[in-house]
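$ run holo --ligand "manganese (II) ion" --emit tokens
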Amino acid sequence: MSFELPNLDYGFDALEPHIDALTMQIHHDKHHGAYVANLNKALDGNDALNWSIEDVCRSVSKFPPAVRNNGGGHYNHSMFWKLLKVNNGAGPSADVKAAIDRDLGGFDKFKETFGNAGITRFGSGWAWLVVTAEKKLAVGSTPNQDNPLMDVSDLKGTPILGMDVWEHAYYLKYQNRRPDYIAAFWNVINWDEVAARFAAGMK
Ligand code: MN
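-- output --
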């Protein structure tokens, strides 16, 4: 067994004009493709090639750094593609919205907090919305390809929304303007996918 690059459920141009087709093509085929290839290389001959990528993340401290970087990259991007869809202004489902109101001070405050988590992440990393062990919503960020499933992560929980703030996610269209990319990101959140992950995380 080995890990495989999942196909996108949509075309490279499906998120235009918010995220451009060339960025999607290089991001999926080249960047995510390289994480998968390097993860398989790093785990060559290891039993963990038969594990779920979630379980690899949960035990990542037991593996060499290449597994943390590339296993995180594989998990994060596999989730990210599913979370993207032009939403035409739609917002969170009633359940997710109620939890945001309860735990994060309302949707506008959440947008600000989540956006700032991405803007203030120095260098490369991810902003996250997670369900914590206490079944509350929390916002934070991780460096590089770390994620909140990892035993090495300060931010812990079940990710239900993740935003890639590596330059490779936006540089062709937005260059150095990470805040502009983050502003556009709200147009391409697949809130149905967030709702499904929220329901699973609350179980
Ligand atoms: Mn990326």
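-- notes --
The mean pLDDT is 98.
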